[in-house]
Amino acid sequence: MKNKILRNIITSFLLVATAFTFFGCHKAEEKSTTIKVGASITPHSEILYKAQEILADEGITLEVVEIEDSVTPNTGLVEGTLDANYFQHQPYLDDFNSQNNTDLVSIAAVHYEPFGIYSSNISSLSELENGAQIAVPNNVTNEARALLLLEQEGVITLADDVGILASVNDIVDNPLNIEFVEIDPSQLVNALPDVSAAVINGNYAIEGGLSVSDAIAVEADDGLAAQTYANILVTTSANADNPALLRLAEVLQSDEIQTFIEDTYDGAVVPLN
């Protein structure tokens, strides 16, 4: 009888212990959150890896998906293979939403990458010859930005009030008869030997081994571009209130990440306060 009672007690104890273990593990799983974010390799993924370290201490696993093109990060959000992306600015996002009837939204502005004019053939824009070729990005929003920089430097004059919608058709004065060569942004660095100059996105300049100090001219910090082309953390409207993504947004705007950007990119990437 005593043995039977003892066995029952032991069995009951084991059942209770198993239950606590199961529910304890289940509770721990609930506390662990994974978010998958697509990003350009430089500097976006590098910045995310720094944020990854901070989030890990809070039970949030940030999975960084490095993407080299400028379409997949947004289509990944639409298809649900990504929770967020970090690679674009608001005008590019607005154009994507308009072209694809999507409702992707920004939940944080993180940094700004100054456009620069670079050259392998001249050391100053004053050396541009009549009929010189200048390479510019071939997508709508970045081409406008390139043209605004060339106007800032007095190379061309654009029609009044075209702003971030500028295209080569909006050039009203081109005294040197510059020929504009429209090239995929990722190929602009490679095109430098073949043109007089190229206007290059900050991230592609970095990837190509260039520094802001190598540029003939750079966008003004207080210009329209600096105000407009902040790089943003983007997700779907349905996921805009996701607590883990909102926490990522806070981390990306934190003093720690701002210091990391300033210490790492030597002015090629500028954190936004």
What descriptive keywords fit this protein?
273 residues, alpha/beta, D-Maltodextrin-Binding Protein, domain 2, 2 domains, 13 strands, 42% helix, disordered N terminus
Explain how this protein is built.
The structure is a single chain. With 273 residues, this protein is of the alpha/beta class. The protein folds into two domains: 125 residues, Periplasmic binding protein-like II (D-Maltodextrin-Binding Protein, domain 2); 104 residues, D-Maltodextrin-Binding Protein, domain 2 (3-Layer(aba) Sandwich), CATH 3.40.190.10. Helices cover 42% and strands 23% of the residues. The chain contains ten helices and 13 strands. A six-stranded mixed beta sheet has the order 2-1-3-12-4-13, with helices on both faces. A five-stranded mixed beta sheet has the order 9-6-10-5-11. A two-stranded antiparallel sheet has the order 7-8. α2 packs antiparallel against α10. It is globular.
